[in-house]
Amino acid sequence: MAQPVLNLSHAAPTAPSLPEEALPCLGALLQASGLGLAFLDRELRFRFISTPLITLSAIPGSLYEGRTPNEVWPALAPTLMPLLQRALAGEPVTAARVSGTLGGSGSGVRHLRVSVFPATLGGMRSGVSLTLEDETERVEHELALRESEERLRGLVAVSCDGFFIHEGGTILEASRSLASLFGSTPDEMVGQPMARWVAPESREAVQRAMARQVEAPYEVTGLRTDGKRLFLEVLGRQVEYAGRTVRMTAVWDISARKAAEEAAARADAFREQLLGVVGHDLRSPLHAITLSVGALQRAGGLNETQARQVSHVATATRRMERMIHELLDYTRARLAGGIPVRPTPLSLDKLLERTVEQFQVSHPTRLIASSVEGDVRGTWDESRLGQLLDNVVGNALQHSPEDTPVEVKLSGTVDGITLGVHNDGPPVPLEERATLFEPFKRGKRASGDGLGLGLYIARQIVVAHGGRISVESGVGLGTRFIVWLPRHAPGT
To answer: Which residue from 266, 270, 250, 247 is spatially nearest to 258, judged by alpha carbons?
Structure first.
């Protein structure tokens, strides 16, 4: 093991002896790990260096004797030598931070806490004493922590509209983007209660969230310095800050989204009320037209042209009546939370037979093939399931070539009924499938006959019965709508 260097020719005269009981304490101090001790003479040449300092620098003790820091520690000397000169002039230097390499070019950078004290002997300046405490591990840990905090701040800054750190509701730090959002500056926000930027109607909710340390997003109303309100979404998390646990809160400005939602809600409410009123008020005059057309057809006496015109009016009247029913069903579904159903015992094979016969009369050139397997009895709303069959079978006829068949199949199992309606038309585009059952959504291939409510109402009827509806479509496969219904509707 390397030994401390002590050049006896430059050593001081014998000092008064220490009490014997103090010697172990002095020895422990000289050998303390991480704490290096050295004595330099008036020419700032090493005359004594402790074993821990030799170990720390990884330089043999023999290379220190009679040499200066410029010669032994050339990388550290530019910052260390001014401190030694100050101490040599009589000015103590304590706890100065110095960084550099102690050993050769291959050694790593060390972060040191340096203290230098003037040494006197007989009233004369004899040199300086030097202590070096290795703080490399702690400093590197602090740097890594600071870098991590900066990365976290950068991540938060790009993932939200601003953030702030608070302790007990007092702001410790605020990002520039957040301060700008509130019409302030970070310096103006630091030290202030965050309630200053929360609207009165949201303060109680914020206090409850803080007390419960809520870590899920929630909405609050913010208050700018100019008095304007902001709709915000906030998310808080516990973080370590300056050695203590505090809260970091990310903030998103959702004012534009809230305004759009409110505008959409107002538009939806107006449209639903309008559709309900129009649908209801049109039924009376339409009913009168239907009765008049029926009377003309039954009375006879019309020539061929007149009969054809009356037939066109009757067809248009039935189409209008179907549209009004769809509008009323849409309004019920939106305002009443769904389409009401009145389930009664029913056998679906009879209902399917009637539906196919009606379509066959209106589409005499089309082949509509139907089949039934298993027990198809249950408890459902007959009029609503008739409407369901009209919508899905009518959709299949509308979207397939005249010379191709439409296949309708009913299958009964223990737990429910499956209805499949297949046509050989072109596949439904992928971009349309996600909105196929949404209201007023009509595909590019749709004709002008209808409002785009048929499949929406079909799904509402299925959902009201506790079932589900889906679509399968592909090139060479055609399109198949699949409906599954439980054997008994909810509530029966």
So the answer is: 266
- The two three-digit tokens of residue 421, written as one number: 């309606």
* Separation of alpha carbons 396 and 421, rounded Å: 7
CA 362 and chain centroid, separation: 53
pLDDT in tens, 78-135: 999 999 999 999 999 998 988 888 765 456 788 899 999 998 877 788 899 999 888 8
CA distance linking residue 336 with residue 333, whole number of Å: 6
d(CA 427, CA 78): 80
Alpha-carbon span 60 to 72, nearest angstrom: 10
Distance from the Cα of residue 476 to its chain's centroid: 40
Reported for 52-56, long-range contacts at CB under 8 A and 24+ positions apart, including other chains, are: 53/132, 54/2, 54/4, 55/2, 56/102, 56/110, 56/132, 56/134
User: Bridge-partner residues for 479, per DSSP?
Assistant: 423, 473
Nearest one of 427, 408, 428 to 419, comparing CA atoms:
408
Distance CA(468)–CA(473), nearest Å, equals 17
Tokens (6 digits) for 466: 């506790």
Secondary structure (3-state) at 409: strand
DSSP state of 160: S
**Helix, strand, coil percentages in the chain from 3-state DSSP, rounded to 5:** 45, 25, 30
pLDDT digits (tens, 9 = 90+) for 294-330: 888 888 788 888 888 888 887 777 777 777 777 777 7
SS3 call for 435: coil
Q: What's the pTM?
A: 0.44
Q: How would you classify residue 160: left for phi > 0, otherwise alpha for psi between -120 and 50, otherwise beta?
A: beta
List the one residue out of 381, 395, 386 whose CA is nearest residue 464. 381
Query: Nearest Cα to 121, choosing from 50, 49, 39?
Result: 39
In 385-437, beta strands by DSSP E: 406-412, 416-423
To the nearest 10 degrees (0 to 180), the angle between helices 304-335 and 255-299 is: 150
Rounded distance between C-alpha atoms, residue 64 and residue 10, angstroms: 14
250 DSSP assignment: E
Q: How many CA atoms lie within 13 A of 220 on its CB side?
A: 28
